[in-house]
Every structure is written in structure tokens, then in C-alpha cells.
């Protein structure tokens, strides 16, 4: 059986990689993928702790996070398509000014 701390270390490593991607990258698609990595690292910890404590609530929370993430991606991709049509760029620095 795999010990719990392996899952915690995996979740921390993925969370740090995702946080670095959000803070350091300038492409909006890479930032969105890094946010997905952050949320999936939290899901790993939810499921690992749920399995360790023999409780199914961690899996339920993970399913809710996955559903919210799917909705977030759908909205974000719609916004990105509109942004590319108007600005023709996906760099964060170029699209900081929102004008109506």
C-alpha cells in the first residue's frame, strides 16, 4: 500500500508547479492550464485523505471541484475566443486594459 505522505508530496509538488506557472508565465492558456494543475493537486489530496480516513467525502469534494473546473474552462475558453478575435494575442500584458 502506498503511504499517505507520497500523495501529499505529489500534491505539494503539483501545487508549486501550478503556482509558478500562474505567477511567472505570460500566456493566458498556460495560466489556465496552471490553474487546472493547482485544482488537480488539491483533488489528489482530497481523495488521498478520504481514502486514508476511510471516508467518501474527499471523493465528493473532488467531484465538485472537477465540475466547477469544467464550468470555469468553458467560460474561460469562450472569453479567450472573443479576446483573440478582437486583439489577436494571448499575452497577459497586452490584454490588461479592458475597454467597453
Structure description:
- Its EC number is 7.1.1.-.
- One of its GO terms (molecular function) is quinone binding.
- The model has no long low-confidence stretch (mean pLDDT 90).
- It contains 3 helices and no strands.
- Helix content is 77%, strand content 0%.
- It is elongated.
CATH architecture of the domain at 24-89: Orthogonal Bundle
- The counted number of beta strands is 0
Measured distance between first and last alpha carbons: 56 Å
Shape: elongated
The main pleated sheet reads as: none
* Helix and strand composition category: mainly alpha
Q: What sequence of helices (H) and strands (E) makes up the elements? A: HHH
Computed over alpha carbons, the radius of gyration is 17 Å
Strand-residue proportion: under 5%
Unreliable stretches covering 5 or more consecutive residues: none
Helical stretch tally: 3
- Using the coordinates shown, work out and report the CATH topology of the domain at 24-89: Helix Hairpins
What value does the average pLDDT take? 90
What is the CATH C-level name of the domain at 24-89?
Mainly Alpha
Q: What portion of residues is helical?
A: over 70%
